[in-house]
Amino acid sequence: MSGRHANTPSLKIIPPVNDHFADCDKALAIRPRRGSVTGTTGSAFGFDSDHRRQLGILQMQVLLVEDHEESRRVLQSLLEHWGFEVAGAGNLKKGLELIGTHRFDAIISDISLPDGSGYALVNEAKRQGGNLVAIALSGYASPADIQIGKLAGFDHHLTKPCDCQHLRSILEPAQTANH
User: Fold this and answer.
1) Backbone phi and psi for residue 40, each to the nearest 5 degrees, phi listed first
2) Is residue 127 classed as helix, strand or coil in its secondary structure?
3) What is residue 158's three-state secondary structure?
4) Is the preceding omega at residue 161 within 30 degrees of 0, hence cis?
Protein backbone atom coordinates (compact mmCIF):
# COMPACT_ATOMS: atom_id res chain seq x y z
CA MET A 1 0.00 0.00 0.00
CA SER A 2 1.32 3.44 -0.80
CA GLY A 3 0.20 7.00 -0.37
CA ARG A 4 -1.23 8.71 2.66
CA HIS A 5 -2.77 5.53 4.13
CA ALA A 6 0.41 3.44 3.93
CA ASN A 7 1.08 3.54 7.68
CA THR A 8 -2.52 3.59 8.85
CA PRO A 9 -3.56 0.31 10.46
CA SER A 10 -6.83 -1.04 9.20
CA LEU A 11 -9.65 -1.83 11.59
CA LYS A 12 -11.41 -5.10 11.12
CA ILE A 13 -14.96 -5.01 12.41
CA ILE A 14 -15.95 -8.49 13.48
CA PRO A 15 -19.64 -9.34 13.17
CA PRO A 16 -21.38 -9.87 16.51
CA VAL A 17 -21.18 -13.41 17.85
CA ASN A 18 -23.68 -12.97 20.63
CA ASP A 19 -27.22 -11.71 20.20
CA HIS A 20 -27.51 -10.62 23.86
CA PHE A 21 -24.55 -8.26 23.62
CA ALA A 22 -24.26 -7.46 19.91
CA ASP A 23 -23.23 -3.83 20.43
CA CYS A 24 -20.67 -4.95 23.03
CA ASP A 25 -19.02 -7.38 20.61
CA LYS A 26 -18.65 -4.63 18.05
CA ALA A 27 -17.19 -2.24 20.63
CA LEU A 28 -14.60 -4.82 21.66
CA ALA A 29 -13.64 -5.62 18.07
CA ILE A 30 -12.55 -2.09 17.22
CA ARG A 31 -11.09 -0.72 20.47
CA PRO A 32 -7.84 -1.74 22.18
CA ARG A 33 -8.13 -3.07 25.71
CA ARG A 34 -6.63 -1.20 28.63
CA GLY A 35 -3.44 -2.82 29.81
CA SER A 36 -2.79 -4.37 26.40
CA VAL A 37 0.42 -2.38 26.02
CA THR A 38 2.01 -4.45 28.78
CA GLY A 39 0.39 -7.67 27.67
CA THR A 40 -1.89 -7.99 30.67
CA THR A 41 -5.57 -8.63 30.31
CA GLY A 42 -8.30 -7.11 32.40
CA SER A 43 -6.06 -4.80 34.34
CA ALA A 44 -6.26 -1.07 33.95
CA PHE A 45 -2.96 0.76 33.52
CA GLY A 46 -1.13 -2.57 33.03
CA PHE A 47 -0.84 -3.38 36.76
CA ASP A 48 -2.27 -6.40 38.53
CA SER A 49 -4.89 -5.71 41.21
CA ASP A 50 -2.50 -6.02 44.19
CA HIS A 51 -0.05 -3.60 42.60
CA ARG A 52 -2.86 -1.11 41.83
CA ARG A 53 -3.98 -1.20 45.47
CA GLN A 54 -0.41 -0.59 46.69
CA LEU A 55 -0.24 2.44 44.41
CA GLY A 56 -3.63 3.70 45.60
CA ILE A 57 -5.32 3.10 42.24
CA LEU A 58 -8.83 1.95 43.13
CA GLN A 59 -11.02 0.02 40.78
CA MET A 60 -14.64 -0.96 41.07
CA GLN A 61 -15.01 -4.66 41.88
CA VAL A 62 -17.82 -6.25 39.84
CA LEU A 63 -19.33 -9.71 40.22
CA LEU A 64 -20.85 -10.93 36.95
CA VAL A 65 -23.13 -13.98 37.23
CA GLU A 66 -24.33 -15.30 33.86
CA ASP A 67 -24.83 -18.95 32.97
CA HIS A 68 -24.44 -18.45 29.22
CA GLU A 69 -20.66 -18.76 28.84
CA GLU A 70 -20.31 -16.71 25.66
CA SER A 71 -22.45 -13.88 27.05
CA ARG A 72 -20.39 -13.87 30.26
CA ARG A 73 -17.13 -13.81 28.28
CA VAL A 74 -18.22 -10.90 26.09
CA LEU A 75 -19.61 -8.82 28.93
CA GLN A 76 -16.66 -9.56 31.22
CA SER A 77 -14.25 -8.46 28.48
CA LEU A 78 -16.19 -5.26 27.94
CA LEU A 79 -16.34 -4.45 31.66
CA GLU A 80 -12.59 -5.04 31.96
CA HIS A 81 -12.04 -2.87 28.90
CA TRP A 82 -13.93 -0.09 30.69
CA GLY A 83 -11.55 -0.44 33.64
CA PHE A 84 -13.60 -2.53 36.06
CA GLU A 85 -12.15 -5.52 37.88
CA VAL A 86 -14.49 -8.44 37.21
CA ALA A 87 -15.05 -11.86 38.76
CA GLY A 88 -17.28 -14.10 36.69
CA ALA A 89 -19.49 -16.97 37.80
CA GLY A 90 -21.68 -19.30 35.77
CA ASN A 91 -24.15 -20.28 38.47
CA LEU A 92 -25.66 -19.33 41.82
CA LYS A 93 -23.38 -21.58 43.87
CA LYS A 94 -20.19 -20.00 42.50
CA GLY A 95 -21.67 -16.50 42.82
CA LEU A 96 -22.53 -17.14 46.49
CA GLU A 97 -19.01 -18.48 47.12
CA LEU A 98 -17.53 -15.31 45.65
CA ILE A 99 -19.70 -12.92 47.69
CA GLY A 100 -18.74 -14.93 50.77
CA THR A 101 -15.03 -14.40 50.19
CA HIS A 102 -14.73 -11.07 48.32
CA ARG A 103 -16.10 -7.55 48.60
CA PHE A 104 -17.88 -6.28 45.50
CA ASP A 105 -19.04 -2.78 44.61
CA ALA A 106 -21.51 -4.06 42.01
CA ILE A 107 -23.26 -7.25 41.02
CA ILE A 108 -24.59 -7.87 37.54
CA SER A 109 -26.65 -11.04 37.48
CA ASP A 110 -28.94 -12.97 35.23
CA ILE A 111 -32.23 -13.86 36.92
CA SER A 112 -32.55 -17.44 35.70
CA LEU A 113 -29.53 -19.51 36.71
CA PRO A 114 -29.19 -23.29 36.36
CA ASP A 115 -29.11 -23.89 40.13
CA GLY A 116 -31.25 -21.03 41.44
CA SER A 117 -31.94 -17.37 40.79
CA GLY A 118 -30.21 -14.03 40.69
CA TYR A 119 -32.85 -12.92 43.19
CA ALA A 120 -31.34 -15.26 45.82
CA LEU A 121 -27.81 -14.07 44.99
CA VAL A 122 -28.59 -10.37 45.38
CA ASN A 123 -30.72 -10.94 48.44
CA GLU A 124 -27.79 -12.70 50.14
CA ALA A 125 -25.27 -10.06 49.05
CA LYS A 126 -27.43 -7.28 50.49
CA ARG A 127 -28.15 -9.32 53.64
CA GLN A 128 -24.40 -9.51 54.26
CA GLY A 129 -24.39 -5.73 54.42
CA GLY A 130 -22.91 -5.11 51.04
CA ASN A 131 -23.11 -1.47 49.99
CA LEU A 132 -23.29 -2.29 46.31
CA VAL A 133 -25.24 -1.55 43.19
CA ALA A 134 -27.14 -4.60 41.95
CA ILE A 135 -28.14 -4.89 38.31
CA ALA A 136 -30.45 -7.58 36.97
CA LEU A 137 -29.65 -8.57 33.40
CA SER A 138 -32.36 -10.80 32.11
CA GLY A 139 -34.78 -11.74 29.39
CA TYR A 140 -37.54 -11.46 31.99
CA ALA A 141 -38.93 -7.95 31.56
CA SER A 142 -42.51 -7.92 32.77
CA PRO A 143 -43.49 -5.34 35.40
CA ALA A 144 -43.92 -8.24 37.86
CA ASP A 145 -40.37 -9.47 37.17
CA ILE A 146 -38.99 -5.99 37.73
CA GLN A 147 -40.96 -5.61 40.98
CA ILE A 148 -39.73 -8.98 42.29
CA GLY A 149 -36.20 -7.90 41.43
CA LYS A 150 -36.56 -4.68 43.41
CA LEU A 151 -37.93 -6.61 46.40
CA ALA A 152 -34.96 -9.00 46.21
CA GLY A 153 -32.52 -6.09 46.19
CA PHE A 154 -31.82 -5.23 42.57
CA ASP A 155 -31.36 -1.50 42.04
CA HIS A 156 -31.66 -1.67 38.23
CA HIS A 157 -33.22 -4.06 35.73
CA LEU A 158 -31.78 -4.32 32.22
CA THR A 159 -33.26 -6.60 29.60
CA LYS A 160 -31.46 -8.69 27.02
CA PRO A 161 -30.35 -7.71 24.50
CA CYS A 162 -28.34 -5.42 26.73
CA ASP A 163 -27.77 -1.75 25.95
CA CYS A 164 -24.13 -1.70 27.04
CA GLN A 165 -23.88 2.09 27.15
CA HIS A 166 -26.84 2.15 29.54
CA LEU A 167 -25.06 -0.41 31.71
CA ARG A 168 -21.95 1.76 31.69
CA SER A 169 -24.02 4.82 32.62
CA ILE A 170 -25.17 2.97 35.74
CA LEU A 171 -21.75 1.65 36.77
CA GLU A 172 -19.61 4.75 36.31
CA PRO A 173 -21.45 6.98 38.82
CA ALA A 174 -21.47 4.07 41.28
CA GLN A 175 -17.71 3.73 40.84
CA THR A 176 -17.21 7.41 41.67
CA ALA A 177 -19.48 7.13 44.71
CA ASN A 178 -17.73 4.01 46.05
CA HIS A 179 -14.16 5.26 45.56
Assistant:
1) -90, 155
2) helix
3) strand
4) yes
H-type alpha helices, 14-137: 22-30, 49-54, 69-81, 92-101, 118-127
For residues 126 and 77, give the distance between their C-alpha atoms in angstroms, rounded to a whole number: 26
User: What is the tens place of the pLDDT at every residue in 41-78?
Assistant: 333 334 444 554 454 455 899 999 999 999 999 999 99
Q: What are phi and psi of 109, to 5 degrees?
A: -140, 140
Question: C-alpha distances in angstroms, 143 versus 33, 112, 149, 159, 166?
Answer: 37, 16, 10, 12, 19
Contact 112, 140 (CB under 8 A): yes
pLDDT in tens, 119-166: 999 999 999 977 899 999 999 889 999 999 999 999 999 999 889 999
Query: Residue 43 carries which side chain, given as an amino acid letter?
Result: S
pTM for the model: 0.71
